[in-house]
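Hi R.,

Here are the chain sequences for the assembly we discussed:
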Amino acid sequence: MRRRNFMGGSAALLALVGTSGLGRRSARAASPAGPVRFLAVRTPHGVDRDYWIPRQGNGAEPGAADEALSGLSFEYENSILDPLMPWREQITILDGLDTKCTKEGTRSGVRTAHGHNEQGVMLTGAQPPSDRNGNYDGHPSLDFHLHALLGAPVLLTASVEGTGTWKCMSYDGGGAPRSPESSPDALFRQAFPEDFEPPNQNEPTIDYTEGENRILSYGEGQLLALEARLRDVERAKIEAHREAIASRKTTGGGPPVGYCTTSGSDLPGVGGNVGDYTNVRPVARAQAAVIAQAFACGRSMCATLQILNDFPNYYTDVPEVQASGAQALYGNGFRFHENLVHDYWNASGANLVTLREGYTAGQRWASGHFAAVLDELSKVTDPLDPNGCSILDNTVVYWHNEFGHDGHDNQHTRHPVVIAGGGGRTLRLGRYLRLRDIGGNNLTNHNQLLVSLAHAVGRTEIDFFGDRDLENVAEYRGPLAPLMV
Amino acid sequence: MRRTSLVLALSFFVGCVGSIGDVGNQGGSGSGPDGTDPTDPRLDARAWRLTPAQYNTEVQRLFPGAPPVSLPAGASEFGITNNAATARIDLGNVVQYTEAARIVGNWVADQGADAARCDSFGTGACVDQFLAWFPAAAYRRPVGADEVAVLRDMYDDLEAAYDGTWAFSAVVRAVLLSPEFLYRHEVGPEGEGVVTIDPDEIASLLAFSLTDAAPDEALREDAASGRLADPDVREGHARRLMDASAPIWRRFFWEWLKMATFRSQANETGLEEAIADDLVDEYDRFIEEVVVEERGTLRDLMTTSHTWGTAAVADYYGAEHSGDDAVERIELDPEQRGGLLTLGTWLVAHGKDGRANVVRRGMSVYIDAMCNVIKPLDIDLEDALDDLVGADATVKEIVEARSAAPSCGGCHRTSDPVGLAFETYAGDGRWQDTYPDGQPVDSEAVIEGVTYQSAAAVSAAHAEDPSFRRCLVRRFGHFVMGADFGNPRRVRAPREALAAFDESGGSFEELLVAVVRDPAFIERKK
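And here is the predicted structure of the full complex:
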């Protein structure tokens, strides 16, 4: 029995554009014109800003607050972003972005500091909860919110290790953390059912829309009846279920399915067990490849990818970190997060030099993961783009860290953020943007960045994203102006 | 550089000044809406989504051999993963449910008569035979003729539009997407106020809570006769189902004691994958034997100095084994091991590579096992470190300094001595007399004026500790009911369950019976 009912009735087969990668950094001849997807990536351990920013040829900081990356360099000693040098045209560096909302403290039950569980702020824009269960009290993360608006079937929530709801990236409509999937094989199966087959232009397609809607309609009446018998949280829960079912009917499965070449049997064959630092990069690549395939096949429009947490301790084993001599300072108990991240700020003299070398080496390794993600996205041609550009060209990527750095660790200030992809249609690419006086206290807010990202995927009606208590505060509204085209 | 441990400790908890004590009504529906009595333990009427495991078990019950499907877990509360309020189906995960139903529906249609339990697949008679059993089985309640008719109409319409196989699959999919299948209802009759939930709802609550599966024949019969509102009848079922409850107890202790970190910490501490697998099997067997087979008490759980495992497990503990691959009872050194907290699984789950285990294990007992909370504050960890100890301090000196510090001592003077007692276990849970750097382990711990020479002794003391017992009862109620009733000191139902638990000498069976006998088990507010 051959079934294509997963495609819904809106399947519109586009012209075959091929799937071989156009090559890194996009040798495209035309501007990207596909639907814009959203991917958020997070890595741990903060950064030292001095070694994270691009520099001028003489080693000095960028001379202007808004400067082309083409005139700057990541290639200097201890540079963290060195692996991104080949991607300069397709990334923008945001220097001096703060999660200012963290400090607002507008109601009880919120914690006015960043660090650890408060990482959810980066995508929810909401004030972090004071307990450590990580429930953001009705504030979904941006990926969840956009997924609901963009209508593709699957919201992908991936990780390289770091499963569980501790330090999550993605939060559901109730603000509860969504556990990421660490296995590329399992992530693939979420995106592609076993019997998924790429559309065949030469085969007539049966429109099952009416039948599919009939199936979905069956439970709607039961949900309504159940909803009416409940109250408060329970009623809201069933209402959310009913709305989700209704959305499946109205969208018919999301955006049109392009001529992807992935079938349900194309499991990547990567189970996600890392075990050793050398496997981090391949697993990250495999996760990114699945996301790229799901984007290409119209199976997903939004995803998150969390590449490690502050544990396990793989960073410690990276050869460059080992070569720094940091381990000799600590012996067998050497840990990247505690010793390099937390001790770093209080060190001086020769110890500081050693720790800096180790710390930046580890973070450079993380930058390599991000470059690998970009590479995987760029390898896949977007079947929904009539100009044949890559998935990267049609995906806005938001790379952030678990915390900011402001002369200390676990800070809500100066979060290192890199925006990539998207073809420069809405967000400016190839820029270094210093958003504020780095040494001053006039903090920016990242809520505006979240609005910018929403605009980038076409949801320009969104003028605010974040904490309900800040919705009417003018400075939190609107997009991040320096980033916008 | 010995400062490592303290930096680690402080960084993990950001700041250890703050309120200490029993958790209040942290979420859940135990506190009820505004204006109601906060000591009233009755939950709101609700619909409790099947867990991924329960969903797949249900599919197997209906269609043996059907492919397993991947579904999302709900968000956890205090480590407990099956919570009614947070297990949602919404825009973020609805496709996983529609896909799961499609996969199963197509599989059933492909199997034909065998899966449909009919004589001639593809005929109207087969559809009638199928609808005579399937909806009722899936909904775990009798269904009316009108409900069957709706499904039959759906089949007829879709069979005409497409074909019989697609239509048959569609009927299966529709039922598997129905809230009658996806949720365990606890709603009761129409009306407002406090109601007793329906007999079929009680049967499902009992069955899933105690066995993670749908009601069996005996429960269905008592539901049909309306007897399940009788606490004696519920008690009878609880005692009967205790034999099948091992998976529930395994998951409860695993979640309550936050052992989900076992795999990541095994990896970090260098524990070999094979022995890690064996230790999980050992944990499963230990819980089954002590709690279910032997109907043991909390004291048994916390003091038993034997376990069950392979020769590799015996070697891990430095114990004797007959030498083959069979799982057998292993006698442990009672001076070294006694109870659940001295098993490899708990020790590794809260272990680290290095010397930070005092804080991790001590805080795990303090926070997870005793229901204390720490409210992190902004303090400068480096300054706090500099103020406390010099670079060459031993683990014990660090513990003493931290406990004496005004900023940290509030929590650490209670938690650190417990963690110190467990210093005789390395990060990978193996016994150690010395640290890797050759320094001797000094694990003598003074807790509330009493000196303990071993972790086994500390573990035994916890079995008698009121806070520990109170926390266990509270979390078990949360686990069984999927919602936090609240503090046993303030809320009636957990208070009475605690009393029953204490009076029975810490019997887990009596705790279970007390929970299911309570009116709050079957009453809901509407």
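Confidence is low (pLDDT under 50) at residues 1-35 of chain B. The beta strands of chain B are 43-44, 46-49, 183-186, 194-196, 306-309, 328-331, 445-447, 450-452, 523-525.

Let me know if anything looks off.

Best,
T.
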